[in-house]
Amino acid sequence: MKLLTKAYSRHVHHRPFILSSIAFILFFCLLASINEVRFDRLLHLGQCAISKLQYPSISISTTTTTNSSSSSSNATNNLAAADDEIRILIGILTLPDQYPRRHFLRMVYGTQPVPKGAKIDVKFVFCNLTKDDQTVLVALEIMRYDDIIILDCKENMNNGKTFTYFSSLPDMFSDESQKMLKSDDGNGTSESSPSPPSPPYHYVMKGDDDSYFRLGNLVSSLRPLPRDDLYYGYVIPCPSMDPFVEYMSGMGYLVSWDIVEWIKESEIPRNHLDGPEDKVFGAWLKEGRRGRNRHNAKWSMYNFPVPPSGCTHEFWPDTIAVHLLKNQPKWIETLKYFNATKDLKPSKLYHIP
């Protein structure tokens, strides 16, 4: 009996030791398994690093694929941006000797902010030079500003100058596009350039040099309009609001590029050149059944308020064009109303009240 009691007592005393030993063994096994997992991960990472060192083409291929995808995405975005861009050429018909007027208009249009997503080129248009001083002074202007178009014609107002202007543009800008496609890298070799936009302009305007165009409002009015077969301007006669009855005033009318190309190719315009240029232009479109999309910009386009007439009204903020600015006081009054100098930055170099 005593022997059984001692055996039982010894068993009871050894139980904690056995339990703690079992627990220790389990802990050790768990720790070993964790370390094994960590080791496997480290081994896997090491294998990945070694494989990249041994086979760099895989990394390059992956990078190339990623970059290709990114480039494709960027190209798509660029195409979308290009589709959303609006390109406008404003040709101001003037005379070679009108140097002060051109310099003044450069200030007027060069200080206007161009809306985002718009490209507007303002160029001065006249016929062949006829004086020695013109060949020097106009050449200097071109070298400095690159904003002059010289047409192959004898200077006139209502005997074909407008036709020559519009009909010359497709060939002019086709040649310019070819120049853009190849450029000299400075080493005597040529390299390819990005393709020029097509068409070069969505819209082409003919404007007078006594008209003031507000470029931001012009762009805003054009954005929702079609980019084909468009005829845009101020409807004549002044009381009329129907753009299909007569024609658009010569103060500034605009057409889409496809009509510019039609003027170049069609026999209708070249067979009818004489007469008031704006009226003749409307007659071309009527006979050729062109300009099916028409937009009357009245009353955002109008003549200077004084003297009052059926073609005038007071200045207002939504103005696109003001016409008949025949002298400097009228220009100054117009520019003051539209706060043309609002972006003048303060400086210690000048003080303007």
UniProtKB/TrEMBL annotation:
GO terms for cellular component: Golgi membrane. This is Hexosyltransferase. GO terms for molecular function: hexosyltransferase activity. The chain crosses the membrane at residues 12-34. Its cofactor is Mn(2+). It comes from Linum tenue. Keywords: Glycosyltransferase, Golgi apparatus, Manganese, Membrane, Signal-anchor, Transferase, Transmembrane, Transmembrane helix. Residues 178-201 are annotated as: Disordered. InterPro entries: Glyco_trans_31 (IPR002659). Belongs to the glycosyltransferase 31 family. It is a single-pass type II membrane protein. It is found in: Golgi apparatus membrane. It is an enzyme of class 2 (transferase). The keyword Protein biosynthesis does not apply.
